[in-house]
Structures are given as C-alpha cells and as structure tokens.
Amino acid sequence: MSGLILGIESSCDETAAAVVRGGREVLSSVIASQIAEHAPFGGVVPEIAGRSHLRAVMPTIDQALAAANTRLEDLAAIAVTTRPGLIGSLLVGLSAAKGLAHARGLPLLGVDHIEAHAYAAVMEAPEDAYPNLTLVVSGGHTALYEARSPTQLTRLAETRDDSAGEAFDKVAHLLGLPYPGGPSVSRLAEQGDPRRIRFPRYRTKSGEPDFSFSGLKTAVLYHLRGQDALAATPPPEAIPDRAHVAASFQAAAVDALVGPSLELATRRGLQTLAVVGGVACNLRLRESMRTKADALGIRCLFPSPIYCTDNAAMIAGLGWHLLQAGSTSGLELDASPR
Ligand code: KG4
Ligand code: ZN
After folding, report:
1. Do 161 and 253 belong to one domain?
2. 0.70 cut: is pTM over it?
3. With bands split at pLDDT 50, 70 and 90, how would you rate the model's confidence at 247?
4. Quick check: CB of 84 below 6 Å from ligand 1?
C-alpha cells in the first residue's frame, strides 16, 4: 500500500487539499484562502463561503495532487473533514471526496476537524507524543483534551462562552483592525505595553480549570467607551491607546489560556502539552506557555504556524491513522455542523 492519503478540508473559510504519506510526510499542502472575500464583512459569511468552496475545491485538489507528483490511482484513501463546521461548506468538500472515491474505488475517511487540529502537533513531533494534554484554541473552539492516541481524545474542559479566537476577532473589530483579528491584534500589540491596562483574568468558581472570554471582551468594550452602556464605541482614530489596549488584551487572553492548561496538565500528571489551532500561531502565547511549562517540567508541542490554522495536511495525516484502524466509510458518509 502506498500510504498516500489525499486530505480535503472545507469546514470554514479555507479550501484546502494535501497529500501526506504515512501520516507524517507532507508531500503537498495547498490552501485557497477566502479571507479577501469575507474581509469587507468583518467575519465569515456562510453563503459566500459555500460558493467560494464550490469554485475552488477541484482546482485545489488538482494542485495538491500535481505538487505531490501523485495521481488518484496512487492513493490509498481520501480523507475529508465531515464535522464540525459550516454545513454548506462541509458538504462541498465531502461531495468532491465522494465523487473521487467512487470514481476510483478508494476508501473514504471521515475526519473530525478538532481531532485533526490536535493531530497537527503530533504530525511534526517525535514518536512519543502520547499521552498528552491538548489545548485546541481556534476561532471555533477553546477546549482541553486528554489525548491517548490520534483517535482517542477525551474532552476535559471547554470555554463557557466565546472561544479565544473569537475574542481576538471581536477586539480587532472594536479597535478597527482588519479581519481575521488574531494576526492584526498581535501585530499592533507589539507596539504597546501589556501592563498598561489591567484587564480581568477569568478564574473559575468551581475550582476546576476552564475558560471564559466574554468578560474579557466586555472589559475591553467598557475601557473603550466608558461605563455609559448607551455610549457609542469610539471610532478607531479616536482611541489614543490602541496599541496598549491590544497588548494588554493579548496578555490577559494569554494568561487565561496558559493558567488552566498547565494546572490541568499538572493535576493529570501529563508531561506533554500540545497547543493547536489558529490562536496557537500567537507568539506571546507560545512564549508564555513554553516558559511556564519548562518551569514545571512539562514539554510543549506546537505545530508549525501553517499547520495551526486550517489546512488539509492535518486531515490527511489523521486520515492515515483512521485507515490503519479500519475506520473507513462508504458513500453514506455524512457531514454534521457539530
Ligand atoms: O484554526 P483556525 O484557522 O480556524 C478554526 O478552526 O476556527 O483559527 C482561526 C482563528 C481566528 O479567530 C484568528 O483570529 C485566530 O485563529 N488567530 C490568531 C492568530 N492567528 C490566527 N489569534 C491570535 N494570534 C494570532 N497570531
Ligand atoms: Zn480549524
């Protein structure tokens, strides 16, 4: 068997295809980003996403196969994201995968997007990545999982409200910074003082480590427009301390991610912590997590930034493990938003 898996990802706003050998060796990873199409609206518009995936999916797959110098008949299977995500977007990738699998008699592998993000840290890591605590921190999710293998994940904690990525995106909007917010907030934050404004760090009442980001977002809002609930949020040019707000918000968000993650890793006796998803690109998060984990003797694994944000290499990589486990599907494979 070739061990070559074609991965297809279309759950949100990137159409992606990749060819990966044996779960690790990335032969190609192509991403058609829709950022420019959604940017004027300040966030992902589901109808635009679906139509854009439809236009991009076959050219992106062709490009990934060509870049890997691979033909469909060389593949062992086709892996595709089936959940969670925008249903109209998921269906585009799934339909393409089904069509190709049916035409070539290839097995289909349905991949969970969150498990694939978690696998991204392992794909590039040494063999002994398990067991680990995985922090999935993206636009759609902020949760901690105990991972025993690529396909055995148990959720231990989850945000009570917003995801960390959403908080970055909303604060960017308040500061008049472009979508997606994470990269633009963190760029502006480099010019500010992270200690200038003391935004709140959420502390759980139950004593169990978990996350919350809505209070932090509201604190930023009140800082910008004062305590008058009816006052309008000032236009970006009228915010004199924008960089300090960005830096102080980022520091609070990083603390709110690092604290509970290390506490849970310690409680569970897990010596490896994987940090994955779009927000794992954040340099201050990487720096703070690594420094504090080192002090506790906990090893940190971060995917390369290109495998933190949505990509299909992580789908193909995890797909190989599903194939090994015999978790293949037929044309009845369905997509689910949750
Ligand atoms: O994993 P991802 O590409 O998509 C989801 O599955 O949600 O994550 C996208 C999220 C967005 O909210 C984006 O603002 C955030 O990741 N992000 C960042 C950074 N780069 C991307 N957040 C903070 N700092 C960054 N450097
Ligand atoms: Zn994602």
Report:
1. yes
2. yes
3. very high
4. no
Cβ atoms of 19 and 64 within 8 Å: the answer is: yes
For residue 331, is it within any domain? no
Please tell me the distance from the alpha carbon of residue 191 to that of residue 181, in angstroms, as a whole number: 16
Q: Are 319 and 3 in contact (CB under 8 A)?
A: no
Query: Do residues 228 and 176 share a domain?
Result: yes
Integer Cα distance of 78 and 80 in angstroms: 7
Verify that 253 and 317 share a domain, yes or no. Answer: no
Q: What is the pLDDT of residues 173-216, one digit of tens each?
A: 999 998 889 999 999 999 999 999 999 988 777 778 889 999 99
Q: Is 108 in the pocket of ligand 1 (CB under 6 A)?
A: no
Which atom of ligand 1 approaches the CA of 181 most closely? 14
CATH number at residue 286: 3.30.420.40
Note the pLDDT tens digit of each residue in 209-243: 889 999 999 999 999 987 676 777 777 777 878 99
